[in-house]
Write a structure and sequence with these properties.
By secondary structure, this protein is α/β, with parallel strands linked by helices. 46% of the residues lie in helices and 14% in strands. InterPro entries: vWFA_dom_sf.
C-alpha cells in the first residue's frame, strides 16, 4: 500500500441472512471439574431448540457426547479438529459453520497436523471460530492460531469470551455462561455469502494482501488516486462512506485482527503492524465528519483503539504475550474504558533516548485527535479523566516538555522549524477540536487555562518571528516558564492583569466568541468582493456605486471593497491602507488557488469559495453572503457549494441574495433611452435593497430574518 495515496472507506451492503450451523466443543479434561456440568446446563438451555442444526461434543483424546463428563487426564486438540473436519467434508452440512470452542488450558496441538484439512474446509465453508476461555490459563496461542487459520466468515465476530475462574456459586457461574451463550446465539445469524469487488480492497488496516471478496455489512477500504475507477460490489457501483460508525468498526476490527495475529505467532512483528494501524487510522479519522452531537460511544471506540495502537507502536506499551494478557485484551477490545485502563496501567514513560521531533509531534497529534473525539486525557496524579480544556493544556504541556528533551539532546537542531511546526500543529488541532466539541460551561479555571494557552502561542510566535536566529537556551527558557501542570498556581491566578486586546487573539475565533460572552463584542466589518470581469459589464457600475452609497453609513474602518478582474485583485478605493494585511492575505489565496475564468465567462466560484475558507483559518471569522446576478450562478452555488447544508440548521452557513437580470441585459439594443428608463432604476433599487439587508445584518439595527434564498 502506498501511504501517500488517499484512503476511501466503504461499507458493504446487507446480504441474505441465514442461520449458521453450530458445532460446540467443550473441554472434558479433569481441570474442568468445577465448571463442566454448569456449562452443559447453560448450553442446553440456550441451544437445545436448534435440534439438528447443531453438533455437540465433549473432547479429550477423542470425541464423546456431552454427558457423562469424562474428567480425562489429557486432551488432543489436533485430533479433535481432524475428526470434525472429516465429518463435515463427508457432505450433507450447511455452507455456514460456527465453531464454539470451550477450554481452560493447553493440550496437544500442532497446526501442521490439521493445515491440509483447514485449506479444504475454507474452500467449502464460511466459518466462524469463537472461543470461551475458562480462567487465566486458556490456551490463547492455540485457539488464536485456529481462529486465524479457520475463521473466514467475517471480521466483526468476537474472537473470545471469558469466564473468570474462582469459587463462584453455581448460580453465578450459570449466569455468566448463559450470558455468553446468548451472545453466541445472536452471532449465529450470519450472511449467506460474500460479495465480489471489481478491484482489490483491504478488509483491515493490517491486511497484507488485498482481496476481491468482502463480507456483507462490513467495512473495507482501498488506496486511491486520480485514475481510480469506481468500486463495484457484485457489479453494482457503491460510494465511499464517512459514517463514524463505519470508520470506528474498521479501526476496531483491525486492532482485533492484529491481536489475533500477535497471540498466534510469537515471532510476529506486532509493533510494525500497530504502527500501520495508528498511521492509517489517524489518516482516516482526520477525514471523517464527526458531528458535535455524534454518539460519544462511537467516537470513544475509535479513539481508544488508536490510543492503544499508538502506545504499542511508540514502544510505550510492551505486550507480554502471556495467555492471560492476550485473552483479556481480546475480551475487552470493544470497551473503551477498559482499553484506556489497560494502557494507563501498563504503559511506560517515553524513552528519552528515543525521542525525536517527529515522535513528539506524532504523539501530540494522536492525543489531540482523541480529545477531538471526546476521549480526554487522564490526570497523572488522580488518574481521573480531565475535561476538554484541561486535556488540551495537559497535551500542550507534555508536548513542550518532550520538545525540551529533544532540544537538550540536539541543541543544534532547526529550532525555527521545530517551533513553526509545533505552533502550526496546535493551531490546526484547536480549530478542529472546537469545531467538533461543544463547551456548555466555561469555569474560571478554563478561562485561566485558555489565557495561559493563548500566551504560550503568543510567546511561540514571537520566537518564530525573531529577526536574529533563535537560540536553544531561549526556547528552553520559554518552555520552563510555560510548561506548568494544571495543578500549579500560575494557571489559576485569576487576579493577574491581561492585555484585553489580545488575551485570546491566538485562539480560534469560535472559542473567542464564547470567551467574550457574546458575539456582539466582536468587531464587525464587511469585505465586498466585486466580480469585475466581462460577464458583469452591464451590472458592475450599479453594484459599485450603490455599495458606496448604502455603506456610507458604515465607518471607513469597518468596510473594504475589492475588485477582481482578469485574475487580479485591486482596491475599489485607494484610501484603505489600514486593511493592507487582509488585502495581502487575499492576494496570497489568489496565487494559491489560481482563480481562473471559464470559457463561457463564468468565474470559478468553487475555488474562490475555498480561498475564502482559507482566510477563515487565518484568524478571521467569516459570514459568507453571495449576491448573484441572474439565476445561473445561484443554481450553480446551490448545486455545488451549498448541497452539504441542505436540511440542516448550521450556524454561519452561507446566504444567497439574487439580483434579477433584466431584459436589457439579456438582449443587445442601441436604444439608450430604453436602457436608462427600464434597466438602471430597477437595477439600482435591487442593489440598494440587498445592500440594506446586509448592512442591517452587520450592524444589527433591525436584525432581519433573511428567508429568501437561504439554505
Amino acid at each position: 500500500m502506498i501511504q501517500q495515496q488517499a484512503i476511501e472507506v466503504y461499507m458493504a451492503k446487507q446480504g441474505k441472512a441465514v442461520q449458521s450451523y453450530l458445532i460446540t466443543l467443550v473441554d472434558g479434561t479433569g481441570s474442568m471439574n468445577h465448571e463442566y456440568e454448569t456449562i452443559i446446563k447453560a448450553h442446553q438451555a440456550t441451544f437445545s431448540d436448534l435440534g439438528n442444526q447443531k453438533m455437540d461434543y465433549q473432547w479429550e483424546q477423542a470425541l464423546y457426547s456431552f454427558l457423562p463428563y469424562r474428567s480425562a487426564g489429557s486432551g488432543n486438540i489436533s485430533n479433535t479438529f481432524n475428526v470434525i473436519f472429516e465429518k463435515l467434508l463427508s457432505g450433507g452440512y450447511p455452507k455456514n459453520i460456527t465453531f464454539l470452542f470451550v477450554s481452560d488450558g493447553r493440550e496437544h496441538f500442532e497446526i501442521n497436523e490439521v493445515s491440509a484439512q483447514i485449506k479444504i474446509m475454507k474452500e467449502k465453508f464460511l466459518i466462524q471460530f469463537i472461543c470461551v476461555a475458562v480462567g487465566d490459563q486458556f490456551p490463547g496461542q492455540i485457539s488464536m492460531t485456529l481462529r486465524e487459520q479457520i475463521h473466514n466468515q467475517n471480521e466483526t465476530c468476537p474472537a473470545v469470551f471469558k469466564v473468570t475462574r474462582g469459587n463462584q456459586p453455581v448460580d453465578v457461574l450459570y449466569k455468566e455462561f448463559s450470558e455468553i451463550f446468548i451472545k453466541v446465539r445472536q452471532l449465529l445469524n450470519v450472511q449467506e455469502k460474500h460479495f465480489e469487488t471489481n478491484q482489490p480492497v483491504y478488509q483491515t488496516l493490517v491486511q497484507q494482501k488485498p482481496t476481491t471478496q468482502v463480507a456483507p455489512n462490513e467495512p473495507f477500504f482501498r488506496m486511491v488516486d486520480e485514475q481510480t475507477e469506481p468500486i463495484k460490489l457484485d457489479n453494482e457501483v457503491i460510494n465511499p462512506t464517512d459514517k463514524p460508525s463505519d470508520i470506528s468498526k474498521l479501526i476496531t476490527i483491525s486492532v482485533e485482527k492484529e491481536l489475533i495475529l500477535t497471540a498466534s505467532d510469537p515471532q510476529h512483528n506486532y509493533k510494525e503492524a500497530f504502527n500501520k494501524i495508528a498511521d492509517l487510522g489517524q489518516k482516516i479519522l482526520d477525514q471523517t465528519k464527526f458531528e458535535k452531537d455524534e454518539n460519544d460511544d462511537i467516537k470513544k471506540q475509535a479513539s481508544s483503539q488508536i490510543f492503544l495502537a499508538t502506545n504499542i507502536a511508540e514502544g510505550n506499551l510492551e505486550l507480554k504475550k502471556t495467555e492471560k494478557e492476550m485473552t483479556d485484551l481480546q475480551k475487552d477490545i470493544r470497551d473503551p474504558v477498559k482499553i484506556l485502563d489497560f494502557v494507563e496501567k501498563n504503559a511506560q514513560e517515553i524513552n528519552e533516548q528515543e525521542l525525536t521531533d517527529d515522535k513528539v509531534k506524532k504523539r501530540m497529534q494522536g492525543q489531540f485527535n482523541n480529545t477531538k473525539l471526546g476521549c480526554f486525557v487522564r490526570s497523572k496524579t488522580t488518574k481521573k479523566e480531565l475535561d476538554l480544556v484541561e486535556s488540551i493544556w495537559s497535551i500542550t504541556e507534555e508536548g513542550l516538555k518532550n520538545y525540551k528533551k529533544v532540544i537538550e539532546k540536539d541543541p543544534k537542531c532547526n529550532l525555527n522549524k521545530l517551533l513553526t511546526d509545533l505552533k502550526g500543529l496546535i493551531d490546526k488541532q484547536l480549530i478542529k477540536i472546537f469545531e467538533k466539541q461543544s463547551i456548555t460551561e466555561l469555569l474560571d479555571k478554563h478561562i485561566s487555562i485558555l489565557r495561559e494557552l493563548n500566551d504560550t502561542l503568543k510567546d511561540m510566535d514571537k520566537l518564530i518571528k525573531k529577526q536574529d536566529k533563535v537560540k536553544a537556551n531561549e526556547v528552553i527558557q520559554f518552555i520552563n516558564i510555560r510548561a506548568k501542570p494544571i495543578s500549579e498556581n500560575n494557571i489559576y491566578q485569576t487576579g493577574a492583569i491581561f492585555d484585553q486586546t489580545d488575551e485570546f487573539e491566538y485562539l480560534p475565533k469560535s472559542i473567542q466568541i464564547i470567551l467574550r460572552d457574546d458575539e456582539e463584542e466582536l468587531e464587525r466589518m464587511v469585505l465586498l468582493l466585486f466580480d469585475d470581469n466581462v460577464s458583469m459589464a452591464n451590472e458592475i457600475q450599479a453594484a459599485k456605486s450603490k455599495f458606496l452609497q448604502v455603506f456610507s453609513r458604515l465607518p471607513e474602518t469597518h468596510k473594504l471593497a475589492i475588485c477582481w478582474r482578469d485574475r487580479k485583485f485591486s482596491l475599489l478605493e485607494n484610501n484603505q491602507q489600514q486593511f493592507d494585511t487582509l488585502y495581502k492575505l487575499i492576494e496570497t489565496q489568489q496565487q494559491a488557488y489560481d482563480l481562473e475564468k471559464q470559457v463561457d465567462g463564468k468565474t470559478d466560484y468553487d475555488l474562490l469559495h475555498k480561498a475564502i475558507k482559507e482566510i477563515k483559518q487565518k484568524q478571521y471569522l467569516i459570514k459568507l453572503i453571495y449576491i448573484t446576478v441572474g439565476s445561473q450562478l445561484k443554481t450553480h452555488l446551490e448545486d455545488v457549494i451549498l448541497t452539504k447544508f441542505r436540511n440542516r440548521e448550521v450556524k454561519g452557513k452561507p446566504l444567497i441574495k439574487v439580483i434579477p437580470r433584466t431584459i436589457a441585459t439579456m438582449f443587445q439594443t442601441n436604444d439608450s433611452q430604453l436602457k436608462k428608463s427600464t434597466t438602471v432604476p430597477k437595477l439600482d433599487e435591487q442593489f440598494i435593497k440587498v445592500y440594506d439587508d446586509i448592512l442591517d445584518l452587520i450592524v444589527k439595527e433591525k436584525n432581519p430574518a433573511i428567508k429568501d434564498n437561504q439554505f
